[in-house]
Specification:
Elements (H helix, E strand, L loop, with lengths): L1 H22 L6 H13 L4 H14 L10 H13 L17 E6 L6 H14 L4 E6 L4 H14 L2 E4 L6 H15 L3 E6 L6 H15 L7 E7 L3 H14 L4 E5 L9 H9 L3 E5 L7 E3 L2 H9 L1
Helix pairs in contact: 1-2, 1-11, 2-3, 3-4, 4-11, 5-6, 7-8, 8-9, 9-10
The protein binds guanosine-5'-diphosphate.
GO molecular function: GTP binding; GTPase activity; signal recognition particle binding
Membrane topology: Peripheral membrane protein
Catalytic activity: GTP + H2O = GDP + phosphate + H(+)
């Protein structure tokens, strides 16, 4: 965890540290407040949250205010409040009535879906949970192979179908297999073709319906690439409209100065960020913790 924090700090320091440098100026004049706004917008915090934060900072750090305030402490408190310290970020990985928990992982191709499925399996296995993976991204042979490799690496079974086969039938087979074996959790990788909303809705809707003939879906994780900014947000909205997303996985935070997307996407979808991807390695997935995240931002 310490290592992950360091990585986040290394990549993310820019935006938090930049803000702090601006707020620590002797005179907080209009130019400075404009620079603060620019810094927040560039980091993808979003227009409304940026305005709210700047208003609160202006009030609390007003020149000649009642008491001298430590800008670092004020910024820290306000950033934590913005990120939502009280949202329920627990993953629903357990099922009820003897069924496994079923985690459906959705998102646009290339965002890091398959990698996230592999890393999540690894975390669960490390917690002594039994896991089955479903390779329902049948449209890309490479995705199925990639998941199979993760399965071998982590030591979990991967249920796969014929190439170009029906994703829903693979998802069904995976959940039935997990159900029969009595495992704790089945994680299903899905196809992320954004052909059109109706097509996506048909496909994901069918995957979910078919799975639920065996066991309820307990968690729907939407994977979002932090480096894609506003474009990624638009795509995220489309997914959220077709399936009930219960958590967000924000990947590639390591390579991005745009950590503010955490705030923007939670506002946009009304769903908490539950996990963050901090690299390509097997251990580079971590639960999202608002306070640790803000501390890392501030360096
Ligand atoms: P999918 O098409 O959504 O299943 O995406 P993949 O899982 O194949 O990932 C696409 C690329 O992003 C791969 O090269 C991954 O190694 C890389 N990737 C995934 N997550 C992260 C992350 O958190 N950080 C970085 N730097 N790369 C990542």
């Amino acid at each position: 965890l310490v290592r992950l924090r360091q990585r986040l700090a290394g990549a993310q320091g820019g935006f938090g540290r930049g803000l702090l440098a601006l707020l620590s100026r002797e005179r907080l004049d209009e130019d400075t407040w404009e620079s603060i706004e620019d810094t927040l917008l560039t980091a993808d915090v979003g227009v409304a949250p940026t305005q709210e934060l700047v208003d609160r900072l202006r009030t609390r750090l007003r020149v000649g205010g009642a008491e001298a305030q430590d800008p670092r402490e004020v910024l820290r408190e306000e950033l934590v409040a913005l990120v939502g310290p009280d949202l329920d970020r627990r993953l629903q990985i357990s099922g009820a009535d003897g069924h496994p928990g079923v985690v459906l992982v959705v998102g646009v191709n290339g965002t890091g879906k398959t990698t996230t499925v592999g890393k999540l399996a690894r975390i669960l296995v490390a917690e002594d949970k039994s896991v089955v993976l479903g390779a329902a991204d049948t449209f890309r042979a490479a995705a199925v192979e990639q998941l199979a490799t993760w399965g071998e690496r982590v030591g979990v079974e991967v249920v796969r179908g014929a190439e170009g086969g029906d994703p829903a039938s693979v998802a069904f087979d995976a959940v039935r297999e997990g159900d029969e074996r009595g495992v704790d959790t089945v994680i299903v990788d899905t196809a992320g073709r954004l052909q059109n909303k109706a097509g996506l809705m048909d496909e994901l809707g069918k995957v979910k319906r078919v799975i639920e003939k065996v066991a309820p879906v307990t968690e729907v994780l939407l994977v979002l690439d932090a480096t894609t900014g506003q474009n990624g947000l638009i795509q995220a909205r489309v997914f959220a409209e077709v399936v009930d997303v219960t958590g967000i996985v924000l990947t590639k935070l390591d390579g991005s100065a745009k950590g503010g997307i955490v705030v923007a996407v939670q506002r946009e979808l009304g769903v908490p960020v539950k996990l963050v991807g901090l690299g390509e390695g097997p251990d580079d997935l971590a639960p999202f913790e608002p306070r640790a995240f803000v501390d890392a931002l501030l360096g």
